């Protein structure tokens, strides 16, 4: 579950262990914070004064921070952690009480759990009430229940999973979500098209549906047109992207779109395709595929015709080839 992966993530960060957290290495400073007369000590005190007054066996905040930031330190951040993790560990040095116990759940704004074999997005994620960005790429998630997602979420990335149905995700979707990443999943149209509207995602700015199995271009466009705030759309890798008028129809049908398949839409392109959306008869349900074969080895060359004399009774050898493409 996501909760189990999150707990393992916290363990790797070591927020309660040296040089972070509370312990003998900073006991006097932690006592000063909790004592009635120590409210002004700690971060607001003069660093030089702290350095001189350090009891035996304790470390200054500067020394502890250096242990975190030096890449050669045994306490340096693991290379596959997210950008937020380093500031979080620094907070655990400077103000350890903020990440102590359940307080740590209120600190997280971004959570990145990639390639950890996660199968379930469980309700334990609701403890992260301030979470705005959730990256769960390259896991094994086939179903995601929106009731288990923090309401403050603005970015949800589910690339490279096994999501085939959006019904549970759209039951109670986070109202402020701005980016939804569903690339490299198992979504098929037209049954899933109806979940890609402003009724579920009123604030969506960016949508990634790349490398799924959407085939109904006109049906999908009619649903996406309700997303008035949509500016970035990725549909490459779907069968519908092979339709010759694919890009032109999208550019003309979604006038507020700025980027399609990672390519900026300029005024010239918009002018070129102006009016195409009002000509659905041009949208044929067929694909155009160009296949180029660079070189074939080990077979006779069929272009070398045999030169036979007129009336010759020599046998004629013919060759035939079958080339198959699987889509």
TrEMBL record:
Region described as Disordered: spans on this chain: 28-49
Cited InterPro entries: Leu-rich_rpt (IPR001611), Leu-rich_rpt_typical-subtyp (IPR003591), LRR_dom_sf (IPR032675)
GO annotation, cellular component aspect: cytoplasm
Domain of life according to the entry: Eukaryota
Gene3D superfamilies referenced in this protein's UniProt entry, alphabetically: Ribonuclease Inhibitor
PROSITE patterns recorded: LRR
Keywords: Leucine-rich repeat, Repeat
Protein name: Leucine-rich repeat-containing protein 43
């Amino acid at each position: 579950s996501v909760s189990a992966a999150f707990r393992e993530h916290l363990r790797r960060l070591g927020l309660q262990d040296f040089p972070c957290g509370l312990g003998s290495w900073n006991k006097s400073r932690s006592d000063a914070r909790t004592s009635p007369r120590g409210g002004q000590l700690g971060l607001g005190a003069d660093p030089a004064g702290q350095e001189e007054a350090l009891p035996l066996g304790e470390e200054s905040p500067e020394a502890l921070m250096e242990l975190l930031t030096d890449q050669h330190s045994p306490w340096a951040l693991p290379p596959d952690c997210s950008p937020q993790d380093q500031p979080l560990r620094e907070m655990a040095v400077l103000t350890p009480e903020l990440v102590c116990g359940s307080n740590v759940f209120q600190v997280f704004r971004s959570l990145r759990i990639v390639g950890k074999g996660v199968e379930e997005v469980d309700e334990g994620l609701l403890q992260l009430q301030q979470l705005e960005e959730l990256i769960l790429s390259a896991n094994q998630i086939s179903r995601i229940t929106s009731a288990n997602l923090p309401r403050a979420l603005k970015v949800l990335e589910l690339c490279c999973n096994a999501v085939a149905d959006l019904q549970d995700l759209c039951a109670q979707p986070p109202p402020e979500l701005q980016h939804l990443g569903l690339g490299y999943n198992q979504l098929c149209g037209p049954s899933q098209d109806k979940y890609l509207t402003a009724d579920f995602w009123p604030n969506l700015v960016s949508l990634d549906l790349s490398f799924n199995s959407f085939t109904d271009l006109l049906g999908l466009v009619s649903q996406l047109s309700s997303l008035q705030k949509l500016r970035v759309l990725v549909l490459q890798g779907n069968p519908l992207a092979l339709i010759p008028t694919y890009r032109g129809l999208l550019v003309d049908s979604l006038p507020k779109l700025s980027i399609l398949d990672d390519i900026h839409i300029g005024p010239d392109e918009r002018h070129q395709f102006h009016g195409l959306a009002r000509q659905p008869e041009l949208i044929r349900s067929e694909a155009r595929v160009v296949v180029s074969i660079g070189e074939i080895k080990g077979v006779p060359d069929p272009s070398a015709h045999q030169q036979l004399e007129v009336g010759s009774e020599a046998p004629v050898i013919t060759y035939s080839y079958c080339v198959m493409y699987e889509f």
